[in-house]
Design a protein that fits this description.
Blueprint: H1 20-46, H2 56-62, H3 68-77
Helix pairs in contact: 1-3
């Protein structure tokens, strides 16, 4: 069986080989990513199209790009109203 390597050419560690702090970091990162995705999808669903820059479908697709997509939606995708929403 060939060993799997990452982009830097190092052997990838399995879950069992990871240190406890690396496992916690992975879980926290995954939680933050999933939270951003859910928040962006929920906001896109509830926000009227006239308050979104561009098509909703494009922002839905873009929000699936790790971290960058949801953050881009919250920064560039939403039109800010006079009330600050």
């Amino acid at each position: 069986m060939a060993s799997k390597k990452n982009r830097a050419g190092r052997k990838k560690k399995s879950w069992k080989e990871m240190s406890p702090s690396a496992k916690v970091g992975t879980i926290v990162t995954a939680f933050v990513q999933l939270s951003l995705l859910v928040a962006a999808q929920r906001d896109i669903s509830r926000r009227p199209a006239e308050f979104i820059n561009g098509p909703k479908a494009a922002w839905r697709a873009a929000s699936f790009v790790n971290f960058i997509g949801p953050m881009a939606y919250f920064i560039f995708g939403r039109k800010h109203t006079a009330t600050g929403k």
